[in-house]
Write a structure and sequence with these properties.
This protein is α/β, with parallel strands linked by helices. The chain has a single domain, classed as NAD(P)-binding Rossmann-like Domain (Rossmann fold), CATH 3.40.50.720. The strands form two sheets. It has a four-stranded parallel β-sheet. Strands 1-2-3 form a three-stranded parallel β-sheet, sandwiched between helices.
Length: 261
């Protein structure tokens, strides 16, 4: 199962899993988009993909998604909580944006796990993957809701692994930098959320198919961090090695970004 599968990373993941021979359930609030992806996959291999229109920012949306998927294909082997929103600015972000960011970027993960993990523990196996961001390991300049919720997404994935890892539940967390998605491109509009110039300043912009390939290889290795941009690990090591120096460096980067705008 892949959420946020109407485009971007989610579409890339669904296509890559499908190419591996998996049956896939694709979920997104954009019903037409996710239906088109499923139709294309079913044209390649009949009855191998199911599209579900779902609002993952609600508990009921996640419960219904798991129920429909299990009715269609049986027990779920792997769930990829990929749906996300990139909204918000600083302390002046509207409360509605804070709520939406936490609902989609964090609560959707725990709601899905709530309806998946008991069955996995009973069977002794299952795989939970989530999309966070390099911002969940480092920080996002500019958007407080995005930075906070992506940190929380990483923390929840860590908690799942610690709590259920010995019960057969494997966990991986995807933390990319810039990826060529609608979220990044929309950042070119300063009113739309995260600035793509900020993301591009941090490294290469990858295609969703490149991210999906790294995800598949990491899942095969059953490694926690999925890092399509391997340099993120270097940045994380520098951060934990000298927090104050890292914070000072981030302030300098922020100043350069503001000067560039």
């Amino acid at each position: 199962m892949v959420t946020g599968a109407a485009g971007g990373i989610g579409e890339g993941l669904a296509e890559r899993f499908h190419a591996e021979g998996a049956r896939v359930v694709l979920a997104d609030v954009q019903s037409a988009g996710v239906a088109a992806v499923a139709e294309r996959l079913n044209a390649a291999r009949p009855d191998s993909a199911l599209a579900v229109a779902a609002d993952l920012g609600t508990e009921e949306g996640n419960r219904h998604l798991v129920e429909v998927a299990e009715q269609a294909f049986g027990p779920i082997d792997l769930f990829f909580a990929n749906a996300g929103v990139g909204i918000g600015r600083g302390l002046d972000s509207p409360e509605s944006e804070w709520d939406l960011a936490f609902d989609v970027n964090v609560h959707a993960h725990r709601w899905a796990a709530k309806y998946l993990v008991p069955g996995w523990v009973a069977r002794g196996e299952g795989y939970f993957c989530s999309t966070a961001s390099a911002a969940g390991l480092l920080s996002q300049i500019g958007s407080a809701p995005y930075s906070l919720t992506k940190h929380a997404a990483v923390a929840f994935a860590e908690w799942l692994s610690i709590t259920y890892g010995d019960a057969g539940v494997r966990v991986s967390c995807l933390c990319p930098q810039g990826v060529n998605t609608a979220m990044l491109r929309a950042g070119d509009d300063p009113t739309a959320g995260i600035s793509s110039s900020v993301v591009r300043s941090a490294g290469r912009v990858l295609e969703p198919s490149e991210v999906a390939e790294v995800a598949v290889q990491t899942i095969r290795a059953e490694t926690f961090l999925i890092l399509p941009h391997p340099e993120v690990l270097t940045y994380l090591q520098r951060k934990t090695g000298d927090y104050d120096r890292w914070l000072a460096g981030m302030r300098k980067l922020q100043a350069r970004m503001l000067a560039g705008n």
